[in-house]
Amino acid sequence: MHHVFICGSALRGQPDHKNLQSARFIKETKTRPLYRLHAAENGWHPAIYQVDEGGISIPGEVYELSLEQFQHLVATEPPHMYPADVQLDDGETATAFLYPRELVEKYNWTDISHYGGWAAYKRETVKQAE
Question: How many structural domains does the chain have?
Answer without folding.
Answer: 1
